Amino acid sequence: YLTPIIMKKGRPAHTVTALCEAADRDAVCEALLNASTTIGLRVLPFEKTVLDREERTMQTSMGPVRVKVVAQPDGRQRWKSEFEDIQALAAKAGEDYLTVKKRIDAELETLLAG
Known about the structure:
This protein is α+β, with helices and mostly antiparallel strands. The protein has three helices and five strands. It has helices at 25-35, 83-93, 97-113; strands spanning 2-6, 12-16, 53-60, 63-71, 77-81. Strands 3-4-5 form a three-stranded antiparallel sheet. The longest helix has 17 residues, at 97-113. The two termini are 41 Å apart.
């Protein structure tokens, strides 16, 4: 991704951030050095913590919707309906996305609570 920045002397520029697996690091560095005007790169290793999750397909009054359910560290669960599924159902019904999302999420709240 690109981040607009201001360099010394007020010059506008962009920071290019590339996230990759450790095994791909050399190839990504080589590509950036060969395809840009930069003369150096900062390479930072990091770790990512990801919550356990499962994807379920729930039947709603408007059709099936995929739902991602995650377990939080304190044991509680939270969920999120899949954007593309809501968007497709809204288009099929000739309704706007937000109205359909609100309706379907209310149904899913009831289904997932029980």
